[in-house]
Specification:
The complex is a heterodimer. Chain A is mostly helical. Helix content of chain A is 49%, strand content 0%. Chain B folds into 3 domains: 58 residues, no CATH class; 110 residues, Orthogonal Bundle (Cytochrome Bc1 Complex, Chain D, domain 2); 132 residues, Cytochrome Bc1 Complex, Chain D, domain 2 (Orthogonal Bundle), CATH 1.10.760. In chain B, the strands form 3 sheets. Chain B has a two-stranded parallel ribbon. In chain B, strand 5 and strand 6 form a beta hairpin. The longest helix of chain B has 19 residues. Classes of the chains: A mainly alpha, B mainly alpha. Chain A: One of its GO terms (cellular component) is periplasmic space.
């Protein structure tokens, strides 16, 4: 992934576009990010764990997500490419440097556990595991793993980690894609799949990934 | 109105296939398959509808295996075959010397129409094969994938791994007739009509816009924390010059019918062919049939194989002659696929 991003940056710089803004933003600083993230903690919590809110709007875990992914989402909220009434005003408070810093801050946190999969039946979890790891090709639903990587731990900045994410958040996002309310994914890669998923399929993968744990790197 | 017309037409097609008696579908299949109108989902996505007189087979799933009336030991072996098929990287350094799994190209675990489903091999072999000009059985056919597509050397005939892989193929063919007279629906990677002209430059543009997000700008694919995610399309991590998918039409058929992942048939025919042309005009490990001369290779294997590939072509933009090298990839010079160039039945009389 990084090769592509560096190549893309080189292209932009070479063409003399956006030179100002690219040079103005330095590398992400987690310490500065912590300060800038003071307003985020009310929902996303001090440890970045977010919260599964049954019957309400769940707040996603940010801890351990890829920095580039977080940056893109914040820019997309600002530009209206991703819509969320709760999130938009907070995203708008951040300048470009703070976005990079906040992303760096959350990305280096340890992945926390997720809620919403606790009471899922074995049948639902089995269905979730099937879609996650093998897909359901009879409905042309490719496995989540084929892009989000083994264990759903995420691949680069384009395919976020979804293991140990709150079921309520996964469910809401998949429904948003399915209903055409979210479309800031590259090349409609997620949207195309979500539109083929039934409500039960979405329930199942949400519960499955919420009940998966992600061990910190270097452990075990 | 349009919807109603569509489903009516499908029902007619389904009925005529059923009447011809060549539909097979596993009764326990957990998908939304219907023996009357199999693959209706695919048809609605734009794939061709099954035609009267075609063999339309819906392979059983691994979930179906649990309920199947088969010996528990056989079930274990089929599960092992499935595991090898979907995680062939476990044979890395022994039989596999690149970044591929069987399921990298045979999507949907080898069950998917228009993605070279593998069960037809189990019902049509032994048969004559143009590529090596003799009669091959299922194990020899699988061995070919190891020598070319996996840039490796196959498990021995009759070995546990080979038996497990062939058992998985046979399981997927459950219920389909042996040596069918009918053409098989969704077999291979059927290419769209070849456009008048193919463009490397246009192919490169489409590649960078549509494919590079997963396969990378340099075609090397992607591993995350040492685990396979996206397959390499060229370079040492990919199949060698002898693999079927180096043929431009095969690559075009794969791409048109399967890529980008989850968005089949989204590229135009021209785009699919241009990307295929671009991808198959990149370097990759040498064809194991090579013995020092690209010209000799073209003489020997041009008529049966490389007339469809870019092997030995000189690339326009950099004057590079493709495949004119002795790079064997990760397997080096020491590992030589034992199955390549072995003749059979030379003394049989007509």
């Amino acid at each position: 992934m990084s090769k592509r991003i560096i190549g893309g940056l080189g292209l932009l710089l070479g063409a003399g576009l956006y030179t100002g803004s690219v040079l103005a933003v330095g590398p992400g600083d987690p310490d500065r990010g912590q300060t800038a993230a003071a307003t985020c903690t009310a929902c996303h919590q001090a440890d970045g764990s977010g919260k599964n809110v049954p019957g309400g709007e769940s707040w996603p875990r940010l801890a351990g997500l890829d920095a580039g992914y977080i940056e893109k989402q914040l820019h997309d909220f600002q530009a209206g490419r991703r819509q969320n009434a709760t999130m938009m005003p907070f995203a708008n408070m951040l300048n470009d440097q703070q976005i990079v810093d906040v992303a760096a801050y959350y990305s280096q946190m340890e992945v926390t556990s997720a809620g919403g999969g606790e009471s899922a039946s074995d049948a639902l979890l089995n269905r979730g595991e099937q879609i996650a790891n093998r897909g359901d090709w009879d409905k042309y639903i490719v496995s989540c793993k084929s892009c989000h990587g083994p264990g759903g731990k995420g691949v680069g900045s384009d395919f976020p980690g979804i293991a140990s994410q709150h079921a309520g958040y996964i469910r809401t996002q998949l429904h948003a894609w399915k209903d055409g309310e979210r479309s800031n994914d590259p090349q409609d890669l997620m949207g195309a799949i979500a539109k083929r998923m039934s409500d039960d399929d979405i329930e199942a993968v949400a519960a499955w990934y919420a009940s998966q744990t992600v061990s910190a790197e270097g452990e075990e | 109105m349009i919807m109603r017309k569509k489903s009516l037409a499908l029902a007619v097609v389904g009925a005529s296939i059923a009447a011809a008696g060549v539909v097979t579908a596993n009764a326990q299949s957990d998908g939304e398959q219907n023996a009357e109108t199999p693959y209706q989902n695919l048809v609605e996505m734009g794939y061709p509808a099954p035609q009267e007189g075609q063999l339309v087979h819906v392979p059983p799933t691994m979930a179906d295996l649990e309920d199947a009336d088969l010996h528990p030991e056989l079930k274990k072996v089929i599960r092992r075959g499935y595991d090898l098929f979907t995680n062939t990287q476990q044979l890395r350094g022994k039989n596999v010397f690149n970044d591929m799994n069987c399921s990298s190209c045979h999507l949907g675990e080898g069950r998917q129409p228009f993605s070279a489903p593998v069960w037809p091999a189990a019902i049509t072999l032994p048969n004559f094969r143009g590529k090596n000009q003799h009669v091959n059985n299922l194990e020899e056919r699988i061995a070919g994938c190891f020598a070319y597509s996996m840039n490796g050397t196959p498990p021995e005939y009759g070995s546990d791994d080979m038996l497990a892989l062939s058992a998985y193929h046979r399981w997927l063919a459950k219920g389909a007739p042996v040596y069918p007279d009918q053409p098989i629906y969704g077999r291979g990677f059927p290419p769209p009509d070849r456009p008048e002209a193919l463009s490397y430059a246009r192919g490169e543009t489409v590649y960078q816009e549509q494919c590079a997000i997963c396969h990378q700008e340099d075609g090397s694919g992607h591993y995350e924390d040492g685990e396979y995610v996206f397959p390499a399309l060229w370079g040492d991590g990919s199949n060698n010059w002898g693999a079927g998918i180096v043929r431009t039409h095969t690559a075009a058929g794969f791409i048109k019918n399967n890529m980008p992942l989850g968005q089949p048939l989204s590229l135009s025919d021209q785009e699919a062919w241009d990307v295929a042309y671009y991808m198959t005009r990149q370097e990759r490990p040498q064809d194991p049939r090579y013995d020092g001369s690209v010209d000799d290779m073209l003489e020997k294997f041009g008529p049966t194989f490389h007339k469809h590939s870019s092997y030995g072509d000189v690339r326009e933009h950099d004057d590079h002659r493709l495949a004119d090298h002795a790079n064997w990839g990760e397997k080096g010079e020491e590992v030589i696929p034992w199955n390549v160039g072995v003749p059979r039945f030379e003394d049989l009389e007509d």
